[in-house]
Specification:
Elements (H helix, E strand, L loop, with lengths): L1 E5 L5 E2 L27 E4 L13 H11 L3 H4 L7 E4 L4 H8 L4 E2 L4 E5 L2 E12 L8 E3 L2 E3 L1 E11 L5 E5 L5 H9 L12 H5 L5 H14 L10 E2 L17 E3 L5 E9 L5 E8 L6 E5 L7 H12 L9 E5 L3 E5 L2 E12 L5 E8 L4 E4 L2 H4 L16 H20 L3 H17 L8
Antiparallel strand pairs: 1-2, 3-4, 5-7, 6-7, 7-10, 8-9, 10-11, 12-14, 13-14, 14-15, 15-16, 17-19, 18-19, 19-20, 20-21
Helix pairs in contact: 9-10
Length: 431
Amino acid sequence: VLSTAVDNRGEALHITRAGAPAIDDPLVSPVLVHDSAGAFVVVADSQNRIVAPSLNGAGARLATAWSMQNFRLYFGDAPTPNPKLIFRRALRERVRALAPFFDQSSAEFPVVIGDTLWWVVDLYAVASTYPMSHHVMVKRGEVSYFQHAATAMVNASSGQVAIVADAELEPVAKSWVRAFPGSFTAWSKLPVQLAQSLPPALDALRAQAEAVARYGLVGEPPRGGHVAWNDGSDKALQMGETPLLMLGGPKSRMAATEISLDSADRVVGALVGFGGVDHAVRWVPLARPGPSWSGLEEQMRRASDSASATTHEAQLVRGRIRVVPVGNALAFVQPAYFWPSDGAALLARVVVFDGAVLRSGVTLADAVGLVPNTAPDTLTPATPAAFRARVESYYDQMRTALRRGDWIAFGRAYDALGALLAQAPPPRPQP
């Protein structure tokens, strides 16, 4: 998905791996289970894939109608073949029915494998009271014991729920796994891509970040710091979940970061949580305390204000500040968007602070100096075919830049095209 452009419907623009707009949107199997699903539904299951009670036969329909006190299930028409009754369609209710002893994560994540949508929900062992422990705030409120225990994956099309316990279990989760072994499965029974696409456990990362900020790492003196709660965004874009990053390398992995501040509100480092089955974390400290968090917010806000002078028809709205690990250092990135009253938001500017220099640009590539060189060529093509190919090349660069909202690249290609046309020889007179 090209996040800086929209199609003629105002939706995110789907592109191919080559960067060209996709002709057809990929199809996903019908979604029956999701986070805001309502009442039960009866559907036909010709392939017998849906995990739900069957309504085949008068006896099954009568028993189900009597149990639910809804005799339309008996007298009404049922879809064929093989009608199934999906009773628990709400995502969290379906997971809770199998694992009521675990707390669920504050957010659920969609993962698409082939043509199937899976929902991912992290599960935690929690307790409100635990001796000599520091209390943390989670979805259910304030708790004093909070440990990641398992991951629940729900097939949105079939309703299948797969719960995989962590490889290293703490005592509470271990006791539940021993008591109900049939409720848990292994990664080997699930698609390999699903395990590779798991997002980081955000709630566990937040709790770990609070502990590191307050007490430091093992063997270090207490820091007395805290985690940055304000994400630097305007009110229209303030959200509860930490934004995810895709970090490159030999194996690309999703990740998230939590910013650690000292008692003077200065940035001292970030805790990076990686996706995958191991839920790995990495502490990235700064060599010396960085700028104050409030001061950094103000600097990045002033840098993005220059974009507001380019339009009077749309409001400038700032997104959250994202912290990106770059080697053993940290970079801070904040996007700003044009938000018209009657249209889709468009990327207006990106501000980047690498710890020393504050830069801004129309796109992230522009802000960090990675805009491709589209300077006009000084040599006029020797043949009409070469001239036409050069014109088409600049035209393609303009279309690509326009699709991603990169007006600087568009202007450079436009200038190069104008310079090329100025060099064009006059047309030969016709006999």
